[in-house]
Amino acid sequence: MEEIYAKFVSQKISKTRWRPLPPGSLQTAETFATGSWDNEENYVSMWSIGDFGNLDSDGGFEGDHQLLCSIKHHGDVMDLQFLDQERIVAASSTGCVTIFLHHPNNQTLSASQQWTAAHYHTGPGSPSCSNAPCTGVVCNNPEIVTVGEDGRINLFRADHKEAVRTIDNADSSTLHAVTFLRTPEILTVNSIGQLKIWDFRQQRNEPTQILSLTGDRVPLHCVDRHPNQQHVVATGGQDGMLSIWDVRQGTMPVSLLKAHEAEMWEVHFHPSNPDHLFTCSEDGSLWHWDASTDGPEKSSLFHQGGRNSTFLSHTISNQANVHQSLISSWLSTDPAKDRIEITSLLPNRTLSVNSLDVLGPCLVCGTDAEAIYVTRQLFS
Amino acid sequence: MEEFDGEPTVTWIPGVNSQKKQMCFDWGPGEMLVCETSFNKKEKSEMVAGCPFIHIIRKDIDVYSKILRKLFNESHGIFVGLQRIEEELTGKSRKAQLVRVSKNYRSVIRACMEEMHQFAVADKDSAIGRQFSSQVSILSAMELIWNLCEILFIEVAPAGPLLLYLLDWVRLHVCEVDSLSADVLGSENPSKHESFWNLPGNTQTLTELELRWQHWHEECERHLQDGTFASNPHLESLCKVLLGDDAALLEHKELLSNWYHFLVTRLLYSQPTVKPMDLHLYAQSSLDLFLGGESSPEPLDNILMAAFEFDIHQVIKECSIALSNWWFVAHLTDLLDHCKLLQSHNLYFGSNMREFLLLEYASGLFAHHSLWQLGVDYCDHCPELGRVSLELHIERIPLTTEQKALKVLRVCEQRQMTEQVRSICKVLAMKAVRNNRLGSALSWSIRAKDAAFATLVSDRFLRDYCERGCFSDLDLIDNLGPAMMLSDRLTFLGKYREFHRLYGEKCFVDAASLLLSLMTSQIAPRSFWMTLLTDALPLLEQKQVIFSAEQTYELLRCLEDLTSGRPLCGEPDAQQLQDDDIETTKVEILRLALARNLARSVIKEGSLEGS
């Protein structure tokens, strides 16, 4: 972990996402998008970290990220996902879901489609046009799934004006995040600590499976699926706890790891090295979890200034049923044999790190201290 | 009362007829609310349509500038870092560390200045460009003052190095203000002097330096006396300058941009080993000579003079008056306080100066829709009034989304502000209940450990059940977990749902004893007892005997409790009569069922096992 560049951008960053690379491409990530929040005028912006030679017109140095274009966004940007190379979907605190189109030739962003009342409240006490923030969005071109504070799940299709499917009152509490498991199945997490799996092929509006932690109903804020093993899911909670779940195995998490001191806002498996996991939190830290079982030489090189820790495995379900060949380093439980190395990536403690994204050797994250950090050498 | 330089600016409020109507106003932390009243200026009341709006007036436009935000954020990081390292440092490393912090602050100001300069240059002719330019000069002045304070108060440069620091200071600020030339007096001769001084290595003591300088000075003077340069007036003038002749220096006034440049030049040629304590004498005379009675000193000049006089309080006071934003004085005062330079200067309203300034700055931050998170840290580091100030501010932050609410709550919880946590959670829970998000409402009351609200939510659930005959949000009630213990009503709700589940799974005996315990343990609200008893009916009517005799007696007792406690109130109307009818029928059915069950259970218990 060599260099991490910070830049102050005069807006609190709520989401950062790398632009996906064309499949089979050998390039490294070059462009990322950010969304801001808590401003009177919020923006969705595109940034570039391409090489500019030694000094560019702004006096910024090589490696410093530059703003390409931005567009005003109504309401806080609650979530951001790339639909494909050019289109990005933004979820707003006004309950609106927008698809923005990026024009690379003249470097502008424009709103290409919008669903304005994707999320709203209905209730005896709420006025008729009461908006509910849309809290999470996930894309699988051309499908877009959104969830919100109104406990509603929407399935949209790009270029279709109306929602393809809506599950009203899917949850009595707020849905915080959503991810795809297998294509017709999604998994949502809510503010009473439950994971629910929904199958869009089924007509009834009931989850096919509910998983939850025993003990206190700690709200879960983020979820990510293992890139290769579609039954392994990681969630982060309000108490900063990282949980790894195997959705085929019972209703309890496979392991619970004490992580941050405050809410964990995002958790990401590395898309090409899934033995690496990244989490960021309200406590201002960003952690890199390395569960790869490489030799000791590699770990010590990796480990400058990091923190060694054996993970506290709190297995609840019976592991004997797990197929040996499919065992993932995240699911294995032998504390003596497998250690997860945890490294903190940000140099100083800062205000909350709201979002992070990883692609190849590049990582980008955004904070409430109005700074964006980028590194291009994650595995140096 | 301070005197103002000019007339106060007038701001017109749009839509308000200020000729005819009077306005009223109220101050806020950084803003003012103004609206039109119905009082007229003239005697007779005219029915003039009034302006229906309340206007918010902000004085402090600095806070809203995009580039200045970077200043606020970066300096916040430096501030917090300074408070953290404070305890660890002692002795020499402490001073070096404090100087480094000061330089950090200054580099942040410079970065901001340069960025703004780009905008100013790009937009030269428009009003905005001029605004940027004026902002650049304000920042430049701030950096000038800070730099001088760093040299005099933090670095505490002794005689000797003092002049070099001052030279750097002037050079830095003269060169950047787009002056015509690296002017002759400033740059040419010091280079001669640098080699003369030969300071790297610092092998010479102050007295040695002074002796050498004296010697050189005398030589110069001798040359002048002898008329060596008589043929060339330029060289002669130059020689006079090298001797520190005031008149000669002033002849080239146009090359000196300001009086402090003049001061440093004078010192360079006449008093290079000037002691810090003597600075103010030279400063005052330089100011007077330079201005020559033509113009009066500007605020910046007064501030610099106060610094040369080592009057820190005066510096801070003047800066507070001159600058429109508390940023500068707050951070500078805090840094100087860490240098232990401020005596506990008690202001008449009981706080100390550092805290007062920091809290004023923090208040301004809290008034900003986005920068309130920075304000929290500033309050944290004000031991006397910070916490109280934070408690008041944090409750007033508008909460538009749950995520923002979570951040605010985290701030409160980290500081054990339980009252604020409860009040915020209550607001959010009420909003959730109104929007029919009972699960969210429950999760907020669990977070606040608010038993009363949990009871309210449970009552809502129970009411919904009574109305609809089934539970909504089963996913929530089925999975309450230990949160169930938060309030009695919630426990009842959970247990009641469990009863329904047991019944559904045909575990009748367990269901029956659970139902009974709900009534006997008094956690069921009385209003619900009828429903519970009615729920017992199918169990009583089952083929096999479920309730034992003992249990049946208990049920009977509960029924009696319920019916005896129901007084008739006044004149019952038709509806109530009908309700009463239903009630009576229910009670009768129950009594019959209970009696039958009692009979069967007595027989069953009385007979031998196996029957």
Descriptors for this entry?
heterodimer; A: 380 residues; mainly beta; Methylamine Dehydrogenase, Chain H; five-stranded antiparallel β-sheet; four-stranded antiparallel β-sheet; B: mainly alpha; 26 helices; nucleus (chain A); WD40_repeat_dom_sf (chain A); WD40/YVTN_repeat-like_dom_sf (chain A); WD repeat (chain A); WD40_repeat_CS (chain A)
CA-to-CA gap between the ends of chain A? Answer: 6 Å
> What is the CATH T-level topology of chain A?
Methylamine Dehydrogenase, Chain H
Side-by-side strand order of the widest sheet of chain B: 1-2-3
Domain count of chain A: 1
Q: Kindly report the spatial arrangement of strands forming the biggest sheet of chain A.
A: 24-25-26-28-27
Helix content of chain A: under 10%
Low-confidence stretches of chain A: 52-61, 295-327
Distance between the termini of chain B: 103 Å
Biggest interface and residues each: A-B, 56 and 44 residues
Q: Give me the secondary-structure category of chain B.
A: mainly alpha
Catalogue the unreliable spans of chain B: 176-203
What count of helical segments of chain A does DSSP give? Answer: 1
Nearest-angstrom radius of gyration of chain A?
20 Å
